[in-house]
Fold this sequence. Notes:
20% of the residues lie in helices and 33% in strands. By secondary structure, it is of the alpha+beta class.
Amino acid sequence: MQATARLRTRLKVLTATCLLASSPGWAQLSAPLADSGVPMGTGAGVHSPNSPFAPLQDRADVLPWSVLTAVKTKVEKNRVLPVFPNNIQALNMKSQRVQGFMMPLDAGEKQKHFLLSSVPLTCSFCVPGGPESMVEVKTKTPVKYSLEAVVVEGQFAVLKDDPYGLFYRITDAVAVK
């Protein structure tokens, strides 16, 4: 019971940080300006042309992050909700493979519940992008934590109104070599 409460708290903090950091107003107040005068790291998650991080290279056998980050958002009753294009909605409840970097939600060498990010973490307190650049993963069996990119496959869900602000989730996932 305490582990579930800790997880909910961590997800809420991560989500709030993601949403706050990805909002244009926050970025304009806190981010250094690029030569173009646009705040660095702003835009559609980490795939912004001003982002200091390069996304993973697209692979034919995995769902590309460029598709997942194409989501738009709308504000409704003080909440930020995703607006998914048809090609993303078509992925809902289908088996998908996603490649990314593990963001553990608990301590330990092996993880059964973690976030997968399109870019590696540079700091354990910093999130590299907004909710469009992360997928919540729940695995069948524990996956060994790695600093390298991993590929997981499982039931992909498009989340239209997740209480934690997440946009995507994979359940019954397995690590793919």
